[in-house]
Amino acid sequence: MTAERYHGVGAAPGLSIGQVVWWRKESPKVETQTVSDPDGEIKRFEEVVQQAKAQIQQLRQTTAERIGEEEAAIFDAHLSFMEDPAYIGEMKNRIRNQKKNAEAVCRDVTDEMSQMLASLPDEYMQARADDIRDVGTRILLLLSGVQPFDPSMLKPGSIIVAEELAPSDTAQFPPGVAGMVTARGSKTAHAAIMARTLGIPAVLGLGKTLEELADGDTLIVDGEAGSLIKNPDPQTEKEARSEMERQQKLREDALKKADEDAFTADGRRIQVFANIGSLNDLEAAVHNGAEGVGLFRTEFLYLENDQWPTEEEQYGAYRKVLEAFGDKPVVIRTLDIGGDKDLPYAELPKEENPFLGHRAIRFCLANPDIFKVQLKALLRAGVHGDLWVMFPMVENLSEVREAKALLDECRQELQQNGVETASSLKVGIMVEIPAAAVNADLLAKEVDFMSIGTNDLTQYTLAADRGNELVAPLYDAAHPAVLRLVKKTCDAAHEAGIIAGMCGELAGDPKMTEVLVGLGLHELSMSAGTIPEVKEEVRNVQTDNARTLAERTLVQESPEAVRQLATKEPLKS
Ligand code: PEP
Ligand code: MG
């Protein structure tokens, strides 16, 4: 056997070695038949729907226990399809009216609905197309009596190889799965998110080459680099095993010290905070040693509702987060809707370029009645902790002044009604539009802190849509042009004596920690899982060296050169 190397998308970091097990999904062959007893067929169909519901409920429960509530919520979408008259109801209508067998109508209605959802411009709705296909396959398998792949036969150390994995597949992974490799899928696929949460190294998007992997092959999976080695020679395998042990030890050591604050080797404090997207993320943030919350994305409150959330609902959620963190800072970002985040009940107009459109603070300032509900909830919740309010997508000074004026107006209205409001509360902005970074000196005079959102700042600086696979090779936050804007923002913050933080994905990349500290950031905020590692990196930083390194990144020719410099790898010629 000769060793072969393959490359895909590194979707969940980590290194592992194991044996290939193909997860083959049997899609039952469906033939259209006429049924003589439609009522009997509907009864058979309804029984299967009940069985499918029970399976999904079971999956939801296991996922909540093993992975978390947020991931488990994917199955709520599956369950809602099981109740949907346009889906299940339509199938029953067709069995009755067209006298077709349940298998055929299930195939047809699922195809039609998934195609319709996939054609919608909204990413959230497109993702529902995958969900409905998953549900449709489940019903078809039950109707046809075909046995699906049995995950219980997977031995520890298996590397699962599949065309594509749905959340309902990953949810069934037994403990000990060593890796995950698929032909399709991207970093943002549900399966990738689950793999990251479970700590399973994953390489996705292998395409047709996946067929070159056979059951029983030994595979080294490098989820960081996105590479695979099939049937490695003994020396390569030995080296990979010792690297795995080294990484494992680093992770364990970092986790042991996760609760300690992070100081550079020369004694500068860098605050390492958590980004949270819902209340379900709180536990992981605390467990991984977050020293506060650097970004609480409040969109979930709006997205999970079918009408504007009330002041009371919002107050309850904000208060919970503030109380969970006691006297530690909690940065709560006001509504960042628009762009790729649609809200059906907001009836947002269709825009040619939604990312350049009427989103975030622009929408909120244009709709003060909606905005003021959130601001009031924040002012009330701020009584229970150290609240920092942050406005997203700020582009100019008048937006900041207008938002602050609305905040004052809300405070006065509450106080007039005898309602207690936060006595001290910090107000800041996200720097995620290049104009804000360029004019950071002007903006810094109006606020208490600035937090750099590299996810948007990168897409706007490089004119590369953050969700478009075609321009994905251009989209890299380590681009010197982005780093120059980061530096400009940090310099302006220092000059004004305010805090410069970062809450975009770049902040959670341990390989860039030294550069970021060198650029002048005081605070880094990231998904909880990377906090221990980033804290460890901070502890190894010497500020002077970091500054020199950061200066050098600014004159590199490409993001690749920056990354190589940051990891101190020799530059490839
Ligand atoms: C960002 O743009 O970097 C950011 C943190 O905000 P979001 O990813 O929510 O747009
Ligand atoms: Mg953003």
Provide a brief overview of the structure:
47% of the residues lie in helices and 13% in strands. The protein has helices spanning 38-66, 69-72, 74-83, 85-98, 102-118, 123-144, 167-170, 190-198, 234-256, 282-287, 299-303, 311-324, 360-366, 368-381, 397-416, 434-438, 440-444, 454-462, 480-496, 513-519, 531-539, 543-553, 559-566; strands spanning 4-7, 9-12, 15-22, 158-162, 179-182, 202-204, 218-222, 227-230, 271-276, 293-297, 329-333, 386-391, 426-431, 449-452, 499-502, 523-526. Helix 1 (38-66) crosses helix 6, helix 5 packs antiparallel against helix 6 (123-144) and helix 20 crosses helix 22 (543-553).
Question: Would you write up a description of this structure?
Answer:
This protein is α/β, with parallel strands linked by helices and 573 residues long. Helix content is 47%, strand content 13%. It has helices spanning 38-66, 69-72, 74-83, 85-98, 102-118, 123-144, 167-170, 190-198, 234-256, 282-287, 299-303, 311-324, 360-366, 368-381, 397-416, 434-438, 440-444, 454-462, 480-496, 513-519, 531-539, 543-553, 559-566, and strands spanning 4-7, 9-12, 15-22, 158-162, 179-182, 202-204, 218-222, 227-230, 271-276, 293-297, 329-333, 386-391, 426-431, 449-452, 499-502, 523-526. The two termini are 32 Å apart. The chain binds phosphoenolpyruvate (PEP) and magnesium ion. Phosphoenolpyruvate binds at residues 295, 297, 336, 432, 453-456, 503-504.
Shape: globular
Distinct small molecules: phosphoenolpyruvate, magnesium ion
Q: Helicity, in percent?
A: 40-55%
C-alpha Rg, in Å? 26 Å
Task: Give the CATH superfamily of the largest domain.
Answer: Phosphoenolpyruvate-binding domains
* Helix count, DSSP H or I runs of 4 or more residues: 23
Kindly name the structural category: alpha/beta
Q: Calculate the mean pLDDT score and round it.
A: 91
Catalogue the unreliable spans. none
Just name the CATH architecture of the largest domain: Alpha-Beta Barrel
User: Main beta sheet: strand number and arrangement?
Assistant: 8 strands, mixed
Strand segment tally = 16
Q: Strand order, biggest sheet?
A: 1-8-7-3-4-5-6-2
Q: In CATH's first tier, which class of the largest domain applies?
A: Alpha Beta
Quaternary structure of the protein: single chain
List the domain count as a whole number.
Answer: 3
Distance between the termini: 32 Å
Strand content: 5-15%
According to CATH, the fold-level topology of the largest domain is TIM Barrel
